[in-house]
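Help wanted!
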Amino acid sequence: MARILVTSALPYINGVKHLGNLVGSQLPADAYARYMRGRGFEVMFICATDEHGTPAELAAAKAGQPVAEYCAELHEVQKGLAEGFGLSFDHFGRSSSARNRDLTQHFAVRLFENGYIEPVAEQQIYSKADGRFLPDRYIEGTCPNCGYERARGDQCENCTIQLTPRELVSPRSALSGATDLEVRETRHLHLRQSLLKDDIDAWIDTKTDWPVLTTSIAKKWLHDGDGLQDRGITRDLDWGVPAQFDGAPWSGMDGKVFYVWFDAPIEYISATAEWADAHGLGEDAWQRWWRTDAGADDVTYVQFMGKDNVPFHTLSFPATLMGSGEPWKRVDYIKSFNYLNYDGGQFSTSQGRGVFMDDALELLPSDYWRWWLLSHAPESADAEFTWENLQASVNKDLADVLGNFVSRVTKFCRSKFGEAVPEGGAATPLEAALIDELAGRIRAYETQMEAMALRKAAFELRSAWVAGNEYLQEAAPWATIKTDPAQAALQVRTGLNLVRLYAVLSQPFIPDASARMMAALHCIDWSWPGDADVALAALPPGHDFAAPENLFRKITDDEVEAWRTRFAGGRG
RNA sequence: GGGCCCGUAGCUCAACUGGUUAGAGCAGAGCGCUCAUAACGCUUUGGUUGGGGGUUCGAGUCCCUCCGGGCCUACCA
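Answered by r_m:
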């Protein structure tokens, strides 16, 4: 049977992620992975923290911690939050792992041997006061074009002109404000992706089913200006995968590390190896997911990411894999997302604007967030988070349509028949119509989930919930029971089976609620509904259950008001 | 500057390669039900598809233009 490999873009290490980050990669990847597992596929769902790079060093310095310690701590924080949101990773790794160091160095050697890496001498700005080379955007100065005094070394935010640090008037370090900057010559390794441009271009051309967002970004980079450019893949930092190591076929890279965007995607592979290590499995256990010479040919590989990550996943990472000359599995589908905005503006990590993962779990159970985020995922355009919208979705969809359905069925049964599935009655055209309706919804839901169309899948799921309420209203067992108790029993039995069906279908979106529904039904049968009529007979007469407490509470107007004020800006 | 995306009902969104009268959910109005979390069901009011021009038997969909919003532009990740 085909296997599904799912990776989520790696969340960066420098702090708790906001809901926009979550909905752009990890959460939809989780829903997809859960769905595929539910359908019976063998799934490997991989994520990790992305721990290298300048921002990590700066965040550690700000926290007054050694960078390794800082990353270890934040990794645990992010891991805990992922669990809190029910993200069902098979492994949540770290790009700073030994596995990733070894594999990153391995790829670099292979690329060098094949002529896709070369050392290049560059001039860079060194800050003596900071004791380090400064990336262009960490240099500030006055824009030579418009006179804006806080222009960055790569671009002036005021007049948008492209700059180099040496063009800035009175340049200074954005870190310390130091002005004793000097130009130093330094050598770096470059990934010669320009040599692979045509191969990548041809490969992208075969991906006609990818989102426009994905391919248009890739094509832009491939064809804009002089086409795909070579890229420096080393940096003058302490924290990262060392670029000089035993067996390196070059010299002079002492004190340098690989660029974070070189090693981060490799961590997808390394994290799978970390998974194998953690389970005491051999090399073949992870290689069958990644090496086409070790069985990965029947793997379908899907990546989830925000649109800002697309260039690295469509160009530089494929270039790394292709240039290695080794049989690595390449991505089959890239699902990319637009941005989620917060109440009329952008979520901002630096400004603390918006709702962050830790805040969210403090306010409401994860299912509430999962439902809103997934049913409003920014698939076709940027989407907007508002508290009113969250309130409306949670109260109406979860509490009223689904939660109340479970409540009315289980409590009615308890009061009239006791807490066991009642026996008797025979199906009528009413049940046949319900089955028809559900069969259509289930097939549509499958189609949308397989296409990773989360909003549409959520709509089909909700429609299936609504069908239960429509059925109950028409069947009206509270009236039937007065004249035909056996028929009322059939209607209630149908309702109880609908609860189980909803638990199975809803699990990718609201796993905790699904688990509670199944627990209340004393049921462990999570089998996917192939035929709706079979699915509605899963719980036989006599099967006992326990009517659950309300599955969802409602969000009050007072809470909405309080939260809007609290999260307007200036977090912590 | 260049490129890409978007603009559809009060709100959030649909509408396969152009094809009947532009559809849902929420909000609003009316009716019904009373098992259930004052929940549910049925009916219903809202649109000159951002403006203008063009192609076509036919345009939300294609072309031009203008307005508005967003993203990217390679050293943040």
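OP: Thanks! One thing I noticed: Residues 387-416 of chain A form the longest helix (30 residues).
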